[in-house]
Amino acid sequence: MSDTSATPTSPPAPTPTPSKGNRRGRKAGPADNSNSEFANFPEVEYFIAPGPRGYPPLTEFLDIWDVDMIRRIDESNKLEHHTELYNSENLIVRRGQEFQIKLTFNRPYKPDEDKFAVEFTIGSSPQFSKGTYIPVFFTKERQSSWAGRAIANSDNIVTVGITPATNCIVGKYNLYVAVVTPYGVRRTRPDKSREMYILFNPWAKDDAVFLDDEMERQECVMNEMGIIYHGAYNDVAERSWNYGQFNYGVLDACLFILDHSEMPIINRGDPVKVTRQASAMMNSQDDNGVLVGDWSGDYIYGVSPTSWTGSTDILISYARSKAPVRYAQCWVYAGVFNTFLRCLGIPSRVVTNFFSAHDNDGNLKTDIILDENGKIDKNRTRDSVWNYHCWNECYMSRPDLPQGYGGWQIVDATPQETSDGMYRCGPASVHAIKHGEICFPYDAAFVFAEVNSDVVFYSRRRDGTLDLVKVNRTHIGRMVLTKAPGEETRRDITSQYKFPEGSAEERTVLEKAEEYGCKRVKDNPSLADVDLTLPTLEISVGDDFELDLEFVNHTKEKRTVAAYISGSVVYYTGVSGHEFLFRTPTVQIGPQKSVKELVQIESKKYMQHLVEQCNLNFIVTGKIKETGKIVTATKLVTLHNPKLTVEVSGNAKVNEEMMVTVEFTNPFSFSLEDVNVRMEGPGVMLPRRKTFSLILGGSHLTWTELFSPQRPGKTRIIATLDCPSLRQVDGQVSLTVEP
């Protein structure tokens, strides 16, 4: 700074990190991709060279004594910025909105004579040109990209208002106050109490994540307790999930994720880039990210996916150990990703697609291969349909797409296929998916296939050729659900993803998708003249039950069907496990008659082979002797697990001790070993865990814990029970805490 009358405009260049290689002939500093590192600025910068007696003293000029960040949760900054729920001692604000600080000087501030600036830095190599060093001035003559104004000047205290730019970098900043004297600049020392966080702002109209619906904002930014839907489309189940985005340490953990990905600081103000980077970092597949996925059923080296009750334990563990957390499946990825997005201020929600296709080659087909007798050829059938699949939607503008394609965007952290060389997906515009614009970034074609693929049955001849048997165009993407805003009920958003099946609009969309390279089966093979239906069943784990198959002959001639009845334990991803039932009855049906085939299912046949989702899949195929036609039918049966009983007692008031009791009775004749029980609740209880080595058949489990609610309002305590023999047992209790 050579001009003694100037207000400070840039800090001295921080000391660069030594290079490991020779960079001769190239001027470049170290990569700035860490939000946990800050540059060290000198406390005093003199404009002149030292004289015979050294540098002149600056004590007779304006000096800064104290900086009040107005950071308490009951003060205006956090209340007006909707950040009062964050459990942090630091100031947390949202960009594009003014916040205030109070500066105490050594004497009254004289606007016409005194010059000072508030400086904000982020990262290890802050630069004005990159938006990582921002000086804020308080005179009309000079302003920066962040607006500043003096609000009050009383005695030695000046209250200033600062408005970060609506596109500024999101993360943790250091704040300095620099005072100009004729001889140099005096700057406050680094102080952790003046470190502050700036988040995305869905309440600011010019922010890329602006969401003009207060109910949606409260749900998709502020709500901590979510509901994630699973099961089957005709037997929907739900699990509660504590996002915990305001819990202590979660915000720092989310910023650490971006640091660990080595995402450049300068890109962290763009929600498109942030969500795409985070989509890759939520899984550990190729970048040592947050969660290790596992669908094997063997979780001895970690926590079963069905055991988690929320995101807090996962994120805190990852930030502390800097190692991936074990284990996750799609709803865990979606739950943790939702915490990340809401914590940083990006409106988001978890979405469940029932009968979700995993399209490996982009041909919009799920191929089922039958042998010439109508039996499924498991060796040649590679495709599978997920009973359900969870991903996230986040709300943002898309300046990189044509107008109208902003709004809800799909992001998916479950590692299925690579995108630009990494396991990630999105953001993909929901509007683009609905209208077949699958050419738009990112990964729109893959998501389009998840909700629009056809299930195609082929019969394979002995010479290897395939004959088209049946095309089911309505099975995939049967229903898309998310939690309703402000309620504990589900919201069907299928219409946001696709037009009604068979409508003219749907045909137009599919034709447009084909223009971009998707190839579909357009042939409609003649249907068999015998229908086969399977019943809808509601069965609990451990029950014996009957499977009632009905064959209906629509002709005036008799029909003989050589049938194959297969029952398998199946993962929710559609992958078959153990086959516990296989029968080959021959069914004779009179003209225009129906015949029922009754199959008895004993629990001992399937119990020892169950996996965590407790799904049984029945596939019935058959060949009509008189015509050679193939008939097929499938039915997924979701077995219902026993529930935990969760009860609270005591006076539900802030800081008053209460008691929660979890109870469970083993309904089986066999013992349950290595039983883990977890519980937590937003605003009332951080995650807790207890292990029971053995629960005998028919015996009772009771676990009691004390807790003290930390804030008023409606909340829930959720609990899970998990062991190798029984997965996905949960329970919850709602309570309203008084102030």
Automatic annotation (TrEMBL):
Keywords: Acyltransferase, Calcium, Metal-binding, Transferase. Its EC number is 2.3.2.13. InterPro entries: Ig-like_fold (IPR013783), Ig_E-set (IPR014756), Papain-like_cys_pep_sf (IPR038765), Transglutaminase (IPR050779), Transglutaminase-like (IPR002931), Transglutaminase-like_sf (IPR036985), Transglutaminase_animal (IPR023608), Transglutaminase_C (IPR008958). Signal peptide: none annotated. SMART domains: TGc (SM00460). Ca(2+) binds at N452, D454, E501, E506. Its cofactor is Ca(2+). It holds the Pfam family Transglut_N. One of its GO terms (biological process) is nervous system development. The active site is at C330, H389, D412. It comes from the Eukaryota. Residues 1-37 are annotated as: Disordered. GO terms for molecular function: metal ion binding; protein-glutamine gamma-glutamyltransferase activity. It catalyses: L-glutaminyl-[protein] + L-lysyl-[protein] = [protein]-L-lysyl-N(6)-5-L-glutamyl-[protein] + NH4(+). Residues 322-415 form the Transglutaminase-like domain. Binds 1 Ca(2+) ion per subunit. Belongs to the transglutaminase superfamily. Transglutaminase family. This is protein-glutamine gamma-glutamyltransferase. The gene is f13a1b.
